[in-house]
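Following up on my earlier message about zinc ion. Here are the inputs again, as you asked, copied directly from the submission form:
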Amino acid sequence: MIRPRFVLAGLVSLALAAAQFSGLTARAAEALGAAPLNDFALSGELTQGGWARGVAPRGASQLTFDGKPVALAADGRFLIAFDRDAGPATQISARLADGRVAARSLAISRRAWKLEYIPIGPRPGAAPSAEFARRRALELAQINAARAIAHDSPGWRQTFIWPVYGRISGRFGSQRIYNGTPGSYHSGMDIATGTSGTPFVAPADGVVVLAAQSPFTLEGRLLMIDHGMGLGSAFLHCSKLAVKAGDVVRQGQYIGNIGMTGRATGPHLHWSIKWRDSRLDPSLFAGPMR
Ligand SMILES: [Zn+2]
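Thanks, got it. Here's what our run produced:
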């Protein structure tokens, strides 16, 4: 689902455009398709749960997406992504070297999420104990602290690979509706190999920001990797973690083993991806499971 780049809204002089194109590397132009001129080059999955990588116009600064600043790498590249419930339209803009603003409207296509209608209300779980609440607060504090760490990792530039191959036992975005009341949607991809202990690898380069050796109540042994530029992966329910916080990992490197620690009904790897606070669909990063 690679969509063609959009046409710039607003025309500019060819001379200016040529000058701006000359500064782009051949590799960037090749990877992202047509020449950006004084527009953005953009490619990716412009759909809910998707992402786009781009190259800003030469000399551009102050890149803004959805009204919020976005970091530009030294080579002018950047990443933006679209939450599972993103609206149909958004915009990126940047200030050009001459002070003008280049803006691009993006149409974000809707997904048909798998919804399961349950004719009864949600199970009335017992009220959480004070002990659970105390533990959970500590776990969430660790998760939030890990998410606040920003490393300069190149993983966000890469084409992701699946951490492990197996049966998809739960898809990103699927949701149960209990007697008309939506439950929370599934925030990642569940991959089952039929057994515990199957090794899995890093889907892209990154830095380990959390490796919870002592299982969390819900996530179990939890591994979080920062891929740079606000993009991060989390791996839940692991039986073993082979890396520790601060470790630099490379795409394809063995990082742990799948399991069923925490709240899981069977052994599987739950892989989720976030960009900032947006929850994303891992299958739009790694492509179809082979
Ligand atoms: Zn899951």
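One observation from looking it over: The radius of gyration is 21 Å. Hope that helps, and feel free to reply on this thread.
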